[in-house]
Amino acid sequence: MNPDQVEDATRALLEKYPPATTDRAEFLAAQYDAGLTWVHHPVGQGGLGADRATQRRVFALLAEAGAPNLQVESRLAYSMGAPTVVAWGTAEQQERYLRAIATGERWCQLFSEPGAGSDLAAIDARAVREADGWRVNGQKVWTSMATTSQRGMLLARTDPGLPKHRGLTYFALDLATPGVEIRPLRQMTGEAEFFEVYLTDVVIPDADRLGPVDGGWKVAMSTLMNERDMFGTKATEAGPVEVALDLYAELFRRDQQAASAFRSRMVQLWLRGHVLKLYAAGAARRTTGGPGPESSVSKVGFAELNKAGYELCLDLLGDDALLYDTYEPDALTARPGGSAPVDARRLFLRSRANSIEGGTTEIMRNILAERVLGLPAEPRLDKDLPYSELRRG
Amino acid sequence: MASPTAAPALPVVVESEELRDLRSTVARMVSRTAPESVVREHLDSPDGFDRAAWARLATEIGVQGLAVPEEYDGAGYGLRELAVAAEELGYGLFPGPFLSTVLLSATLVARSGDAGAMADLLPGIAGGSLVCTVALPRHAAGWAADATPVTATRTGDAWTLTGTVPHVLDGQVADVLLVPARHDDVISVFRVDAGAAGVGIEPVLTMDQTRRFAHVTFGGAPATPVGEPGTAAVLLAEAGAVAAVGLAADQVGGARRMLEVTAEYARTRYQFGRPIGSFQAVKHALANMLIDTELARAALDDAVRAVDDQAPDRDLAVSAAKAVCSDAYYAVAAAAIQLHGGIGVTWEHSAHLYFKRATADRLLLGTPAHHSGRLAEALGL
Question: Which ranges carry the Acyl-CoA dehydrogenase/oxidase N-terminal domain (chain A) (predicted)?
Answer without folding.
Answer: 25-105
